[in-house]
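Before a colleague's protein record goes any further, I have to sign it off. Alongside the sequence sits a line of tokens, each denoting a local backbone shape. I want your independent view on whether this chain really folds as the tokens say. Where you disagree with what is written, explain briefly why. This is what I was given:
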Amino acid sequence: MADQKKTLTTSSGAPVEDNQNSLSAGPRGPLLMEDHALIEKMAVFNRERIPERVVHAKGAGAYGTLTVTGDITQYTKAKLFAEMGKKTECFVRFSTVGGESGSADTARDPRGFAMKFYTEEGNWDLVGNNTPVFFIRDPMKFDNFIHSQKRCPQRHVKSPTMMWDYWSLSPESLHQVTILFSDRGTPKSFRHMNGYGSHTFSLINAEGKRFWVKFHVKTEQGVACFTDAEATALAGTDPDHATRDLFAAIDKADFPRWRVHVQIMPEADAADYYVNPFDLTKVWRHSDYPLIEVGILELNRNPQNYFAEVEQAAFSPSNIVPGIGFSPDKVLQGRILSYADAQRYRLGVNHESLPVNRPQCPVHTYHRDGAMRFDGNSGNAPNYEPNSFGGPQEDPSYRQPPLSLEGDADRYDQKSDGDDFSQAGDLYRIMTPDQQQQLVDNIVGSMGTVPEEIQRRQIDHFIKADSAYGRRIAEGLGLEG
């Protein structure tokens, strides 16, 4: 531990008064652009490594279709859901999160599940994971979290001490940690895992009424996972197993499919729900908001060139279409800026004109110039607005209904936002005895080299979730006393 306390500052030397909580309009409100410390953190983090993605570097992708099988027009006016049987083309990229582009597909890690739908009203990107929750609830913590999962700055190796030190000091991570160290942390293939939007989004219907929504994408191949020993062995014999599996299945016309569902919450329910419905570390009970089937996602065409179509595929939660919108989920609010900014840095400001990213509907903007402009740069059309020469104009009919906000602009303590332990305990208790044992063994194996102080701090979190959960891990680490 350092002997001398140092004050955290921004890059310009200004003291940072709070490095854990973003500036928001009320405790559950959206974030404010004036939070320069948050914006600096996200912008700097996006530029840490070139040219591969900072996170989700190792991935595989394919084209397919979404076919509507359920009527949700009472909740949304989005045209891709307008009628039964309607098909929308899409591109999906799967990935691991923490490893580099040459890392093993079988690593214990969340899996990215990013979907781009080429709708008639523009591209809709549903950029999720194979888990319904995440490790943090405030984007101010994201870059520090990822640093803890990457390589030690001195030895350049992955460090269990870094990981567990961060998690033990961030109890809101416990729900996701419990999923990660279960067998779901090592899926057998990209085809054999579910996908989730994870965040709360909004749907808006033709009458201008808003509903809160969570997206669930359930595999029809069945969820299948490796044990820790199987995943470790395969990493040494076929580290590209999942990448190879996806391509081979599609190549032989064994097209993988997922059933897309939504949970719908009336806008007014959010104020009184038993958890903050915009907290990314929480799920909504299915008994409160049952799954409603929306459609079938099928992947049926492989890319012809990995770099052009998979490596250059760019996704951002900021890509929405009329009838689908955001929510006050703070991590979502951060990702709206961060993801698009990362792609502008990684691929260039004109990355949305690349074939894999290009919308299949007309595009009319006043964006001009920039690196790698290859589409004529809009010729002699006006590059300013308003203008008198027939340039594109705004259309107020697409305006979203206002979102009522309250509260003072402040950095609200995200640690006081609710119970960090109950849902992790609920998850542990619904596991089978064999699944519980695998979970305990995986955690004990990961924490074995971690300093005892950190082990005990983390065990306290497990105990708060479920006493047996914590006790069994303590016994496995030889810390019964």
